[in-house]
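Milestone M4 deliverable, item 7.
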Amino acid sequence: MSGTIKELADRLADARLRKDEADEIAKVYQGQYDEVEAELFDAMENAGMSSVRTERGLFRLNDLAWASIEDAERAREWAAAFMPELLTLNNQRLSKLVRDTLKGDAVVDGADDGTNLPPGVGFKTSRKVTWRRQ
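Output delivered:
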């Protein structure tokens, strides 16, 4: 192994260790933040306030809900009947198909000429080096 590649690998390992250490510290701060955020949210809600301005800025309640599918078949039937635009492609499976196609391991039926990808599908690449600690 060339010295330059070994040095780069060592530098990457050092950078990863520093990042992992910072991530652990960030988890502690995130927990503290989440706790205070929940306290402020409850206090404002109990006071009937949707926002408050202080010398540090404007704080607003943002009460959102996120859907979770509890019965996929029933949800799919409803979407097909009333909101077909909700029936989207599965990005993980589509990404695997694109990777396999780019490697030459898959042929896509009905693919665009020249790309061998499904019509309307492009791709982005990500170049990373992984490191497993011993």
